[in-house]
Write a structure and sequence with these properties.
64 residues; two-stranded antiparallel sheet; 2 strands; 16% strand
Length: 64
């Protein structure tokens, strides 16, 4: 049985998520889709996560 997960700040969550996405991309995971999570804990909401790949900016364009 797993113990309670470590609590993360928003910045720590974003950092961990970034690491997970980078590792997943290197392993060929396709991100242009969504995932649904039905959580067993009634105190937590069910969630849907959508990840969309972005085009890298070119040197003559700005991110808006």
């Amino acid at each position: 049985m797993e113990g309670e997960p470590e609590l993360l700040s928003v910045d720590e969550f974003e950092d961990e998520l970034g690491k997970l996405l980078e590792t997943s991309a290197r392993n060929g995971i396709d991100f242009d889709r969504s995932w649904t999570f039905r959580l067993s804990n009634d105190d937590l909401p069910d969630m849907m996560v959508e990840i969309t790949s972005l085009q890298k900016p070119t040197s003559d364009s700005e991110e808006r």
